[in-house]
Amino acid sequence: MELRGxxxxxxxxxxxxALVRPxxxxxxxxxxxxxxDWASGPAAAELSEPVTFVVDRAGVLRLAPRRSEHVVCAxxxxxxxxxxxxxxxxxxxxxxxxxxxxxTGYCPDAGSWPAVAQALDxxxxxxxxxxxxxxxxxxxxxxxxxxxxxxxxxxxxxCDASLPPAWNVDPSAG
Length: 174
Known about the structure:
Number of helices: 4
Low-confidence stretches: none
Number of domains: 2
C-alpha cells in the first residue's frame, strides 16, 4: 500500500520520549482478524472508551490503551497520523464510533485523515469520512509555543501573536 502525506515527527516532551522501549509499541493491526484478536483479548476492557492510535510510516494502524503516550505507541518513530479512536459493533462488524487527531506529541494536521482511512480499510474496520473531532495545532512564530486553535481564533494563548493559517508545528516534516 502506498501512502502519501506528512511524516510527523515527535515534537513533545523529551521525558515522554524516554518512555519508549523496544517491543513496547502499540499493537499492529493489519487485518480484521488481527483487530478481532486484539479486541477480544485483554484490550476488550479498554473498548469502553477511546484508545490511543497511530498510523506508522508503513501505513499500519497501531493501538494502545488510552492513557498510553503516542510516542510509545509508535515506538518512537515518525507517524502518518495519531490521535484517539473509539470502536463499536454494528451489524456484527467493527466500526469507528469516534476518531480524532488529538495528539500533542505529534500534532498531526487534519489532512492526515487519508492515512487513517487507508489503515482502517486494510483492517476491515468501518469508519466515517473524516475525523469526528478535528484538532488544529499551530506553533507560534513569535514565542515558539504549541497552540491548539479553538473556534478558528488563530491567536497565541501565550503571547497574543497571530498564528499562521497553515500547519507549522514541525517545519522539517514532510
